[in-house]
């Protein structure tokens, strides 16, 4: 049984027209503004601040919930030393006038 090629051709034309319209809309849309990339120094400071803050919180949690006195003592040591490192990092950040990610 032979079918007429007209419906197939019309379908192909409609699909091509839709694809062309979609490409025009994509090309017409202005690109979204991208934030300026962070410098390697700022990237380091942001990641270090995130890490030291997390370590302090986890140390506090271990200090209050640990059963073993040795674990509680180690957690207290971690909280003290990491809090000092975090404070030094914030001082450096202020001195270099870096912005802070929130």
Question: What can you tell me about this protein's structure?
Answer:
The structure is a single chain. The chain is elongated and about 85 Å long. The model has no long low-confidence stretch (mean pLDDT 76). The termini are far apart. The protein has helices spanning 6-28, 40-65, 69-95. By secondary structure, the protein is an all-alpha fold. The longest helix has 27 residues, at 69-95. Helix 2 (40-65) packs antiparallel against helix 3 (69-95).
In short:
The protein has helices spanning 6-28, 40-65, 69-95. It has 102 residues and is an all-alpha fold. The chain is elongated, with a radius of gyration of 29 Å.
The class by helix and strand makeup works out as mainly alpha
Distance between the termini: 69 Å
Biggest sheet record: none
* Total helical segments: 3
Number of E-state strands:
0
Uncertain runs: none
> Helical content, roughly?
over 70%
Indicate the overall shape: elongated
> Mean pLDDT across all residues, rounded?
76
Which H/E pattern describes the elements? HHH
Q: Quaternary status of these chains? A: single chain
Strand content: under 5%
Query: How large, in whole angstroms, is the Cα Rg?
Result: 29 Å
């Amino acid at each position: 049984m032979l079918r007429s090629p007209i419906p197939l051709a019309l379908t192909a034309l409609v699909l091509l027209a839709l694809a062309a319209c979609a490409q025009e809309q994509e090309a017409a849309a202005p690109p979204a503004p991208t934030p300026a990339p962070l410098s390697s120094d700022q990237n380091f400071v942001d990641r270090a601040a995130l890490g030291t803050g997390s370590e302090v919180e986890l140390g506090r949690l271990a200090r209050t919930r640990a059963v073993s006195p040795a674990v509680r003592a180690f957690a207290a040591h971690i909280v003290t030393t990491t809090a000092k490192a975090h404070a030094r990092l914030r001082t450096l950040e202020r001195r270099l006038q870096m912005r802070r990610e929130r």
